[in-house]
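[Discussion] Sanity-checking designs against the backbone

I'm trying to build intuition for which residues belong where. Below is a structure token string of 429 positions. I'd appreciate it if someone posts a full sequence so I can compare it with mine line by line.
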């Protein structure tokens, strides 16, 4: 077997820096685990340093020797501990050492995980899907390990000031990506990177149509978006997009009952859509880890802006009960938005409580597993069509958007036009 990735000089250097400047150990502890060190000798020394630090004892060659005691010979004795004092060769940037040690540790974990996967595949003790899921989850865990996010205020001030300058330079323009709807832009400031947005409604209210219209507005303005459709196929998604983009009745497209004029419009629409950065995935039984991996690839290659998931209740998650499943899903989606610096929009169902009230307009308590979804969502909005419940409604042809939670903006409601034959949601004049 080839030699596992390692950098003993970086390991020794980090320990040497700690010996020379005890205050540096806090950075190492917050970023590295003991097992991230390859050398068992360095693992033992670092563990002892951590023990001294926790007990408010100065870390020196003398105190290390005393605390190690009978095991001193195994780590190279006082001679090796003294050698560590000069091992960093005057280069005192501890973060550089941490990055090298962490990278080597990650490579070792990938190698070991791959080896274990090979053993299981050869023995056929698990199915190929089980093994693939294990590898995928393992890779996800390796690259989502917590790193030290602590920063001195001087660095934060500098970065924040630069961001404020950039925003000021936009002179009142949207700070986020335009949704294509004036009132929604005013409420949210546009689709903000790092935000997790929930769009919830009862069945047949138009949440899939709204989500797709929103995504198409974004890609038409040169944004990059991905749609994860767990319930419908790619073909069914495209039927809806063709309908509201080419203004061909949805039922005509579904039944392939299209006249010559509509074929011409459909051809124009197809040509225009082919140039857009829109990606559609209709994988069923998908996990957040799979969604994240695909989004990461799109982010690197196409600078992904927005992701639409239809819908959150169909995402696969292994947990003891449904509440834990939803909690895991929403937390991971929120983390994905933040880590990949994208907007994640997840469609969600409302429970039946809304049907039992005289006023059927949704509230936060109507969300299924409401506390968990509401907690993680930066923005929670509901869709409501009064004509669904009242045939003589004065709001026929209108879709009400209720922004019930907005962590960084305003709440309230506004109305949009709803054209059901085209599955189209439009800005009211």
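Best answer:
Here's mine. Compare freely.
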């Amino acid at each position: 077997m080839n030699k596992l990735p390692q950098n003993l000089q970086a390991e020794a250097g980090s320990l040497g820096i700690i010996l020379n400047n005890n205050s540096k150990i806090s950075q190492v502890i917050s970023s590295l685990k003991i097992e991230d060190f390859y050398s068992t000798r360095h693992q033992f020394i670092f563990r002892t340093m951590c023990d001294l630090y926790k007990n408010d004892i100065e870390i020196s060659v003398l105190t290390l020797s005393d605390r190690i005691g009978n095991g001193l010979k195994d780590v190279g004795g006082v001679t090796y501990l003294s050698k560590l004092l000069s091992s960093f060769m005057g280069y005192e940037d501890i973060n550089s050492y941490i990055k090298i040690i962490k990278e080597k540790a990650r490579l070792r974990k990938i190698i070991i995980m791959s080896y274990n996967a090979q053993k299981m595949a050869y023995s056929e003790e698990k199915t190929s899907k089980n093994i693939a899921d294990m590898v995928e989850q393992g890779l996800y865990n390796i690259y989502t390990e917590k790193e030290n996010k602590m920063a001195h205020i001087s660095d934060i001030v500098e970065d924040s000031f630069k961001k404020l300058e950039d925003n000021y330079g936009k002179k009142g323009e949207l700070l986020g990506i335009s949704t294509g709807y004036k009132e929604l832009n005013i409420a949210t400031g546009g689709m903000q990177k790092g935000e997790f947005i929930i769009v919830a409604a009862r069945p047949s209210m138009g949440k899939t149509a709204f989500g797709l219209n929103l995504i198409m507005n974004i890609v038409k303005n040169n944004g990059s978006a991905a749609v994860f459709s767990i319930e419908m196929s790619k073909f069914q998604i495209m039927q809806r997009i063709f309908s509201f983009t080419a203004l061909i009745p949805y039922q005509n497209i579904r039944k392939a009952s299209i006249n010559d004029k509509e074929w011409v419009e459909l051809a124009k629409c197809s040509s225009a859509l082919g140039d857009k950065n829109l990606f559609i995935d209709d994988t069923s039984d998908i996990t957040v880890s799979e969604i994240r991996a695909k989004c990461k690839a799109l982010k690197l290659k196409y600078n992904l802006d927005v992701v639409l998931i239809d819908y959150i209740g169909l995402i696969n998650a292994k947990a003891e009960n449904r509440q834990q499943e939803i909690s895991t899903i929403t937390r991971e989606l929120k983390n994905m938005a933040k880590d990949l610096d994208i907007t994640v929009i997840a469609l969600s169902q409302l429970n039946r409580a809304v049907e039992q009230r005289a006023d059927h307009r949704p509230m936060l308590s109507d969300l299924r597993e409401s506390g968990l979804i509401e907690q993680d969502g930066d923005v929670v909005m509901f869709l409501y069509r009064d004509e669904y419940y009242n045939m003589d409604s004065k709001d026929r042809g209108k879709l009400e958007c209720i922004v019930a939670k907005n962590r960084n903006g305003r709440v309230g409601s506004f109305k949009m036009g709803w054209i059901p034959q085209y599955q189209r949601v439009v800005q009211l004049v």
